[in-house]
Prior knowledge:
Elements: E1 3-12, H1 22-30, E2 36-39, E3 42-46, E4 52-57, H2 65-82, E5 87-89, H3 110-120, H4 125-128, E6 132-138, H5 142-163, E7 168-169, E8 172-173, H6 179-184, H7 206-222, E9 238-241, E10 246-253, H8 258-273, H9 283-296, H10 302-315, H11 318-333, H12 336-345, H13 350-363
Amino acid sequence: xxxxxxxxxxxxxxxxxxxxxxxxxxxxxxxxxxSELELNDFKMSKELQKTVIEFIPSKPSDDLISLExxxxxxxxxxxxxxxxxxxxxxxGMHPTLTLNQTAVWDHDEGEYYKVYDRLFNIKQHGxxxxxxxxxxxxxxNEAELITNYNKIRALLPYLIAVTAASPIVEGKLTKSADNRxxxxxxxxxxxxxxxxxxxxxxxxxxxxxxxxxxxxxxELHARDADVLCEEWVNSSxxxxxxxxxxxxxxxxxxxxxxxxxxxxxAFVRSLIRNQELVxxxxxxxxxxxxxxxxxxxxDDLKDELMELYKYAWSSAxxxxxxxxxxxxxxxxxxxxxxxxxxxxxxxESVQKIMHDMAVCLRINSSYGTK
Length: 370
């Protein structure tokens, strides 16, 4: 099972004010304004919001080390290019961004953004202040596709719990660990089927998946939005990317470093591999667990998460076992959101927290680990 990832980071000044300059970043490194820049073994890409830039490996890999190395090289290239002028920051949302501090990418693909804005109003946090770790997992045939899709949908609540990393919005600590998903799941509420409140329905065949997709396309067509009738319009927590022959997990908050992102990948892949794992499947139960995860992170799911960790460890490769202890610590000590909350409640400034998280990305270390 090959794996590919996509990592979204905000661009900031030295005081962690977000800067809508992704076009200038790409132009400085590549010599011209482009949507995507290929640099040896990694890519840098724009996102909808100009305060965010994305790092992507040039190709998927069978092992995590081969993913981590080029991605970290990309971060190092960024810092070599810009010294201390700009800082990159992970997390599921920028903790202090207000909507007047960002802007929509305005160089190409405007036809998509105009339609999205007309239908849903993209001038909100659910569009302009979200940062996800996206994990793409290959499939060999339809049987494997269906099996893994259904297993991932059942794992989503637990993945959300352990990766929650967006407790602060516009500089204020909230009551939720994962605000990114709170905003994300409502950003296309005018057509609820697009997101389905994160957890998609179980499927028994590709034709079932396509039937749902076609219903969404019909709703878009009725709204004169045919330009959006593409496989990527699906915003559930996991979708099928037929064009890439992979399953794409979209529900995960970006973590503080690429190394931590790889730990999440190890957790996901080892759990998918485990044949003994039994998970709840009904939509109501999974939605209920998701609500708990969004609000509290790992806090009231620790028993279930520790059980999952044991399953992951039992089916992990030696390489995956190098990363999994990071997940173990997150389960025991709390997700990033919970760790950030503790610091806020102890009187720590949001700016200091952002600085520490940004340093983790810069040196590729996991926050709070020994």
